[in-house]
């Protein structure tokens, strides 16, 4: 029941502070004889890496990952895989003026109250820097899932501005600085975020993650439901305040008929769902339809605007956060959300194999789902 | 990593099917020497019990809970507490016609694919009947938390109709059949749900749970964040499709300034938050402000309206669900959501005590929070 | 990390006190579609049941097990299996005189100090009665393991008298009241235990459990080694004070050559071990050889002989325990040890399947092991 | 349920292979504001370090530990503590000739069968090198336990030669190369082990670990009994084949009277045990008496003597292991056993605090224990 581990059979334990010598993780439970090298992980880290556009923090870390164990002659051995990234571009002096002052909306005061001590440099343990290790672990999870399961994230809302679903184009996602699938929205956001960034403010966002090609049967009711684990996983990402599956909150407004994902048979004997209100999960178990999760990221709490706060001595202060921050931390949450999806699916893939073994279709052919 | 357990130090394992001989749970980790009897649990079960108004399923179960272990001479002994409710009003024949047919939007087909077998009577394990044991466990969790932490749930939206926040009145919640804090909304919903019920349809809802009086320091970053655990807990409730903390999805639309919960000092030396966008949780740790969670419940999938489906032989069928169902299962989710809040807080209360011992304020007086 | 659960993927949670209304357990993680009924479990309970000879406690419980969930139409469904045995022959008044006095060598004082409260009737939670549920769970574990894995326990020492290994005969085990594989030893023990019983004393014993036919590959280094899990499982049985695998303590006296389990090839291409000093486990992983565990059971602490003690008020008392007790509790530990072996193997069988899938022989044929 | 983690609230995850770039661990759950630096850990590593006498492997590693996270300004912060030791003296070529051959009595073939792949260099993951991280974690555990709990290990038997208990002298333990408390035995062992070493053979040993000053109440029945956790922990150490608590196997030969740890009151109102057959644990809970554990270490399987084996192609081979090995690996198991004792006690110290809070004596003063 470790505080810093997630997953059960695919189990990831992360460690490290933003301005410590390094951050790292241990990935345990990986099946043996999977080809794995740093080259399988690095591209995902590069997508998350800060400093790639003017819309993310200007901290510049190469974020070069090293595999320290668990791989022999290019293959996993079934033993724990330790990964490490050395920190290279810490500028801890930026944080001197907030060491004893609590940024409103930031974890500062909560850590202070819980532990009576905190490492204030770069946010210490509460920094989004920790998510680099989630991305690294996610790359290993993808190797377990194989190429048939496609996990794809996108920013579908920035501030109050959502995308136009009719223009949703997967190919656009990697063509702009926002992981935005709607090219027009991306252009509007660019202007808007420039203004926000220059004013020293920040803005929230909504991220959508879709996994296609996952088999039915992932998820273990009652308390390891796939959607419950996804909700917990996404909510554990820094600054996330809401998670929904499929229609999510919109389902509350529906009648039973409108929410029913009706079924018909395909000519090949497989089942065809006529809709996907459920977001690919029924009763906590995947149905083979695309698994769709959305989560809301609040605006970065570290802003230049002066806000009312207090310090560790109980003095009222007005606080401005200089440092280098993401004006829209939701952008970099896209690859993190993808990684969490991969980790949860890999965990449940192993869990399913433990209890149910190879897939048993129960007499019902399943394709096209 | 049991599939049917939740919590770690306050750990609940539930068992039972809707139409089996009984349902039950084992609650482990409860501190010794807490006064406990069935009378502490029964009132919470009575609130959740079906058949109390025309707006919930007409199955009539007394839901009388028995304590089978862990209590001696009216006090907990530190050993596992087993609770059991015998099932008395099963009408399994209602389900004969859906034994091999899959209700759209229901867990039927997912269980079928995962396990290759399922108990179709009353939904078997996937029935909301399981939530009775959550409510029972929640009653024990409340005994651990003590009387200073007040947990209160309410239905704040039914179908597309939300409450008017200006009329929010805690006292109203137990005066209507909806746990609705807005008396006018309750009256409107009554008419609407009567129509839905008579037409054999169903409707979704949004539930809000608030815990006041919880101390700061609950929650263990990074992967046992209080909000992540709450999200997983609420999403594990039957039919829930979305969860948010504090401002939730609305935070995505905000600027950093608007989202900052600014702080000032009270005359008595305690900290006063000027807002609660965060819903009482920062960095995964409680701040002492009210903890606010909302979740969306989809409409019951068991409806009289005929919907397109398939059966276990792969034949296309049109399916109507007779049985006895909740036209708005969100209503009875209110006490369930309260119970999950209580369980998560109790678990983290014990976790905090393990790692941090008695509360250490770190030099900052805390009152009024 | 429940205090009252064991196993991970095959997970058993037990509850109940010796003189409460019932004892029970929840077995989670059982694969679906395994034929299971009470008739699969009852015979194992009958072997452990008290009151079957004059050498076990005279408490007479039918120990009739009921399956309350997880089985539908004679097959497991993959949902948690709840088992319950009602207590029927409690004579709690026997314990009135020891309610506030601590039997030397018994858990009384330890529970008192830990929890500040305990249920003294029949030993409460610390009674060996709890082991009935282990035996029940073990019967389910055997269904997972299948018929090729044979688990067999025997009493190999009673007090200072060990068996003669040259007379070891599996068929003898069920022919005497001791589960003793050596008919001559059984006869000697009979006389000896009669004398011990009549004098109101008790005596220790050594139990040996062997599992034949288990495949290589069970066990997960470093901290879920098969032998480590077996050691923890056996040591958790009431009154057990020592555990050894294979040669155990005798290995300490050996040279490397003497301890080497040399290997040769069989004509059919399989590996043949020339010895089994290791007891079937190398590096924490099963080798396919018989898995051999022995454990020591101390003499029952509840004896008629007066011993020096204290009471809850701090008064010195001389204490005699009347009640009904096993003069050699090691006898009934035989089926319990078998059950623990079955549970640990089933857990690791599922764990192996999760990480490694179907067995991959790595190029080396394996038979005859 | 990670394979490579142990403990629950004091949770240690280790990683690394003998000849990889480094080995390391993550220690999670450590309370905040404990003074900690490398200087607290290094002395324990130095005790375990190879190459310090002719009686341990001649591999010479400085084993310099680095703290990579979880400590700020000399104090723990409550976040995970990552430790790392870089490997410097690997001589992997020594292992070329055993890469595809299986040393009898070694984990080689078991890893091969389980994973279908293994890192043969220096034993890979199955090397005793992993125990360095246990020792490091144990040093942190001791900081949690404080100075009143004294944990002390000793070698009490080497090969067939035990110590003379009447000469047991704690002060002797650090004066010889064997951690032997009996100076005469140490001298005899020296001659004996020189002969064994020169002949390229190896020998087993028995280690005894005692923890004095631990409070009553540690341990959580039924499945987290202190003695069960100690048994699992010790058995997980490389080459350990047996574990006993208190009188252990000798208890099997005793009568109830002989095994009773009788109690009397001290003048100050505390309880005085008149014996400690139980080894400080009753019913799985510590009693305040010294906790005494012994474990048997088999002889190192890597020996110069030629033994019959097979290779990965199924060819019969005669195998001699050159490399650098401990002639009596039991010697270096002493600090490892101490560390495991410390880790288990720290875990249960936190567990006790979670469930039972500050110690409640239940009316019975406890001192002198």
TrEMBL record, chains A, B, C, D:
The protein's annotated pathway: Metabolic intermediate biosynthesis; chorismate biosynthesis; chorismate from D-erythrose 4-phosphate and phosphoenolpyruvate: step 7/7
Gene of this entry: aroC
Keyword Amino-acid biosynthesis on entry: yes
Family statement drawn from the similarity comment of this UniProt entry: Belongs to the chorismate synthase family.
GO molecular function, one term: FMN binding
Cofactor note: Reduced FMN (FMNH(2)).
Functional description taken from the UniProt entry: This reaction introduces a second double bond into the aromatic ring system.
The keyword RNA-binding is assigned to this record: no
Residue positions binding FMN: 125-127, 238-239, 283, 298-302, 324
The protein's assembly and partners: Homotetramer.
Pfam family, one: Chorismate_synt
EC identifiers of the protein: 4.2.3.5
Catalytic activity: 5-O-(1-carboxyvinyl)-3-phosphoshikimate = chorismate + phosphate
Name the record gives this protein: Chorismate synthase
GO cellular component, one term: cytosol
Cofactor(s) it depends on: FMNH2
InterPro entries: Chorismate_synth, Chorismate_synth_AroC_sf, Chorismate_synthase_CS
UniProt keywords, alphabetically: Amino-acid biosynthesis, Aromatic amino acid biosynthesis, FAD, Flavoprotein, FMN, Lyase, NADP
Binding positions for NADP(+) per the UniProt entry: 48, 54
């Amino acid at each position: 029941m470790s505080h810093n581990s997630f997953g059960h059979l695919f189990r990831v334990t992360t460690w490290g502070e933003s301005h410590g010598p390094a951050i790292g993780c241990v990935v345990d439970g990986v099946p043996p004889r999977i080809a794995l090298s740093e080259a399988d992980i690095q591209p995902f880290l590069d997508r998350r890496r800060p400093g790639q556009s003017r819309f993310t923090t200007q901290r510049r870390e190469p974020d070069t990952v090293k595999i320290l164990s668990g791989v022999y002659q290019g293959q996993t051995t079934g033993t724990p895989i330790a990964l490490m990234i050395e920190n290279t571009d810490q500028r801890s002096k930026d944080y001197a003026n907030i060491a004893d002052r609590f940024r409103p909306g930031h974890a500062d005061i909560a850590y202070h109250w819980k532990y009576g001590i905190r490492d204030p440099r770069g946010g210490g343990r509460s920094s989004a820097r920790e998510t680099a290790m989630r991305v690294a672990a996610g790359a290993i999870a993808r190797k377990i899932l194989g190429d048939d399961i496609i996990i794809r994230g996108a920013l579908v809302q920035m501030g109050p501005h959502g995308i136009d679903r009719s223009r949703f184009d997967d190919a656009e996602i990697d063509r702009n600085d926002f992981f935005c699938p709607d090219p027009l929205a991306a252009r509007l956001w660019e202007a808007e975020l420039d203004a926000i960034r220059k004013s020293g403010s920040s803005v929230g966002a909504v991220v959508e993650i879709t996994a296609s090609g996952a088999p039915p049967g992932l998820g273990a009711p009652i308390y390891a439901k796939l959607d419950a684990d996804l909700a917990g996983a996404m909510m554990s990402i820094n600054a996330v305040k809401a998670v929904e599956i499929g229609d999510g909150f919109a389902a509350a407004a529906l009648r039973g008929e409108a929410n029913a994902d009706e079924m018909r048979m395909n000519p090949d004997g497989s089942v065809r769902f006529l809709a996907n209100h459920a977001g690919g999960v029924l009763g906590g178990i995947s149905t083979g339809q695309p698994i769709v999760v959305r989560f809301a990221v609040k605006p970065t709490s570290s802003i230049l605007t002066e806000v009312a706060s207090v310090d560790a001595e109980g003095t009222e202060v007005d606080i401005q956060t200089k440092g280098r921050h993401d004006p829209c931390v939701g952008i970099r949450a896209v690859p993190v959300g993808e990684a969490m999806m991969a980790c949860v699916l890999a965990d449940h893939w192993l869990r399913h194999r433990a209890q149910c073994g190879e897939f048993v279709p129960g007499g019902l052919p399943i394709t096209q789902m």
